[in-house]
Design brief:
mainly alpha, about 0% strand
Length: about 280
């Protein structure tokens, strides 16, 4: 075989070896490309998933913030309505001409209705403060209504005293004067029992040491005042009960002091309610 033949064989061998090598290299390159594409795909998926989750978190945060703001607005409206209803009830209590005033009754129903709404909206600390405020408001209004009735009863009684004094004669009876003396006797007795200041008509005994004697004297004084008022034709039975109630509690001045105390309790309860409401609004709850 000549040299040209050997060259052809060698070229054929080289070609035979080169084809598999090319195939292997191509396969390796393809695998590398697939791995690169897979890694790129995974990175893209991870990035997309992160972007999607971030969008979800942002939407959830915005939704939560919007709901919280809406809830605060609803609560603020409920709390404001309750406070306004309380104020209307107090104003109606001060200005109502009679105990059965329709405006006063409607105002108190409005307080109850607004409290029910507030109880549904919460939160518990504000609801507790609202219930305390409503209770102290009711207590104060009861005294206000009682004061209106008592003022009318005492005005009628003092007018009767003046009329009797004007028309008094030595040979006429003085039932209103007797009732005035009996009420004064009951009032003095009750004041001495509550806070002995002596000297006084009832300062000669200690009600704590002699409770039976104290009770007996109270019963006698109360019965005497009741009988004396019943003999006054210008005093109704309802007015007599009011006069007796005041006298048994230390008189009209003492009742007005109690009204001042209850007004202070009411104002303190209102301040506590406002503080609880503002705390929740400021805290973003």
């Amino acid at each position: 075989m000549d040299l040209a033949g050997f060259g052809a064989i060698a070229a054929a061998l080289v070609a035979a070896v080169g084809i598999p090598a090319t195939v292997l290299v191509g396969r390796w390159q393809m695998r590398a490309a697939l791995r690169s594409a897979d890694a790129t795909s995974q990175a893209g998926l991870t990035q997309a998933q992160a972007t999607y989750q971030a969008a979800l978190d942002q939407a959830a945060a915005q939704s939560t913030a919007a709901h919280a703001q809406w809830r605060r607005g609803i609560r603020r409206d409920a709390w404001s309505a309750f406070l306004l209803a309380i104020e209307d009830a107090v104003n109606a209590g001060h200005s109502a001409p009679s105990e059965g005033s329709a405006d006063f009754a409607a105002a108190r129903r409005a307080v109850k209705t607004s409290l029910v709404v507030l109880e549904l909206e919460g939160p518990p600390p504000v609801v507790t403060a609202a219930k305390t405020l409503r209770r102290t408001c009711n207590d104060y209004l009861e005294l206000v209504r009682g004061d209106l009735l008592a003022s009318h009863a005492w005005h009628t009684f003092h007018t009767a005293v003046d009329n009797e004094r004007t028309n008094f004669a030595d040979d006429t009876a003085a039932p209103v004067h007797d009732a005035q003396a009996a009420l004064s006797n009951l009032e003095n007795l009750m004041n001495e029992i509550r806070s002995p200041t002596g000297p006084g008509p009832w300062a000669s005994f200690d009600p704590d040491a002699e409770p039976e004697i104290a009770n007996e004297r109270i019963e006698r004084a109360y019965a005497a005042a009741t009988e004396a008022l019943a003999a006054c034709p210008s005093i109704t039975s309802g007015q007599a009960r009011t006069l007796l109630h005041d006298a048994a509690h230390g008189g009209r001045d003492e009742m007005l002091h109690q009204r001042d105390d209850y007004l202070r309790f009411f104002e303190e309860a209102r301040a506590a309610f406002l503080s609880a409401a503002q705390e929740h609004l400021d805290g973003g709850q």
